[in-house]
Amino acid sequence: TTEQHKDKFASTCCYCGVGCGVTVSKEKNGTVTVEGDAAYPVNKGMLCSKGLNLQYTVNDKSDRLFYPQMRYSKSMPMQRVSWDEALQRTAAVFKTFIQKYGPESVAFYVSGQCLTEEYYVVNKLIKGFIGSNNIDTNSRLCMSSAVAGYKMALGEDSVPVSYDDIELADCFYVTGANPAWCHPILWRRVEAHKAANPGVKIIVVDPRVTDSAAIADLHLQLNPGTDVILNHAIGRVLIENGDIDLDFIQNHAEGFEAYKEVVFERTVAEAAELCGVREEDIRLAATYIGGAKGFISMWTMGLNQSAVGVDKNLSLLNLNLITGQIGKPGAGPFSLTGQPNAMGGREVGGLSNLLAAHRNLNNPLHREEVQKFWGGTTISEKPGLTATEMFEALNNGSLKAIWVICTNPLTSLPNVRLAEEGMKKAKFVVVQDISDKPETIRYADVVLPAAAWAEKEGTMTNSERRISHLAKVVDAPGEALPDAEIICRFAQKMGFRGFDFKNASEIYQEHAQLTAGTNIDITGLNYEVLQQKRSVQWPYTTGETGEGTARLFTDKTFYTPSTKAVIHPVPVAFRSEMPDNDFPLILTTGRIRDQWHTMSKTGKVNKLKKHISQAYLEIHPTDADLLKIGEGDVVVVASRRGDVRVKAKLSANIKRGVVFLPMHWGKILGNDLNRANNVTNDALDPISKEPDFKFCAVRVEKY
Ligand code: SF4
């Protein structure tokens, strides 16, 4: 393996869920260099612009936190303290709140960038020992609608396919995603496959003409929010054309008759009108899908980040189910994870409604199983607060203390000014981060310095269920510690047993044991196997010696009680804030190619600023004309919640009536005029509790 070579270490890129393998070399001066790992099955040596600049996250220490800091009142300046003092005081405050107001008065808000071991210990701490389920992660803002969709349709939060299915597919339906920018290396594989096989059909569904649409055979530029109508119309045409798999529908699925009734409620022409696309294009999409030997649907935030996100997911999964395009080569639904380890977090149960190894919090047997294993307190049956609910609870005073790890909520949460009010009202705030830049630090009582990528050891799981081991390459600067170690030290200060792990490997062992007998059983894994294999795909049961499980449901048996997949007759619902006279345009938000989330890492790299250096509003030239807005004019984008002031970028690539803001920028020198989430809506999907980032009503005016 790479790790056998002196000063070269095997790791995985810490940005998107593609999970590219990298080789990190430690130089004599203590800095690192990074290159793509040519032997790694995901990327075969390729890296995108973000991955190519990974070394800066380690080498540039200009914004790093070096030692713990604390203050006894918000009006006092932060003081450097020892780890012992910081954790002792935090434990004392947590104990006081828990005693006075109960265990639900404290919460942890963590990140899809945490390593699996970190997620595991914090989840164990709050659910198994503090006795509350108040742990949620920024994955709530990202994948929770997909999680709910998979569970409802397949019985388990489980991505059925592998990246290697890309080269075996001959039709891709890419919806609510711009992988050319957001999952670039995965998209390079799709592009190469299409170039080598021009007959491969690519359908892109997006209100914007994105770079991903450049290689599409068909771009359906739908009206925002009409995804369910479109998917149903395609389903209807597939049924009308006889392009469905009757054997699969009859023997391996349930719910088809009710689904058929729903999709036949609206003609294709009516659907086309509502979606703002041509009827013949809907029919063509269905013909491409119906004629495919291997059909892969791919999606991400355009479907997930919606007040009807679960409905959108289910309506898409239905297309794979009615065509029987699942559990066979080159076929299946494929959610593209936004963050590098959102999936690993779910594996340990790192959301407020989950338990370890995909167990369900509302199942008394599951709670008992986990409680016995941990030997702590009774696990509460009450779901904890989700991401946005935590900040609401700070606002209404029911949540007293919040501990924020490796995430930047005051840039990334919807309706963020409200979240900011919550942070102001919080009685006690702990911020655990690598950087001194997150806005949360202004509100912190205790600041804990964390080790960054390549400064700690652990594992992550990418979008295709691939678990990889990330080596520690260099020491963390100053007194910074790995996140898992910080949590374990704190748990011990709280007086809890079961947190005296000697290293990350021991944490992983415990996590693996807890998966025994579940659908994500990885009892055959430990660090030795992972280091030797470099990566494997779960499940990986005891005694397994191969590379893991490339494809799920090959025997057409699903994880539902009936073992059949469920085709849900999803109703067409709109829950978004609709445009009106005061706010006539629809705002959608998203990423740009060279920045990552809230830019705390990529924002430091000058090269990555060259592509797009500042926030902007994308608007159609005809809409701009009506508003007397020219290219580069400063405009105010206002919603019922707040406003931003950015330069206009006129583009015929966006649908009329729709405007786009990038989501990356937060406060700059105290000024929040670029922060898209001042404007976005915190309406939630009722099942997944994922916010409606992609749809709210706004007004645009020249400044
Ligand atoms: Fe990293 Fe994703 Fe780029 Fe791969 S595609 S190098 S995982 S950011």
From TrEMBL:
Provide the cofactor list for this protein: Mo-bis(molybdopterin guanine dinucleotide); [4Fe-4S] cluster; FAD
Superkingdom is Bacteria
Domain 4Fe-4S Mo/W bis-MGD-type intervals: 6-62
| Substrates-to-products reaction catalysed | 2 Fe(II)-[cytochrome] + nitrate + 2 H(+) = 2 Fe(III)-[cytochrome] + nitrite + H2O
Annotated coiled-coil positions are none
What is a single cellular component term in the Gene Ontology annotation?
Answer: membrane
Q: Does the keyword Membrane apply?
A: no
Q: Which family does it belong to?
A: Belongs to the prokaryotic molybdopterin-containing oxidoreductase family. NasA/NapA/NarB subfamily.
Protein's UniProt name: nitrate reductase (cytochrome)
- Organism, by scientific name, is Pontibacter qinzhouensis
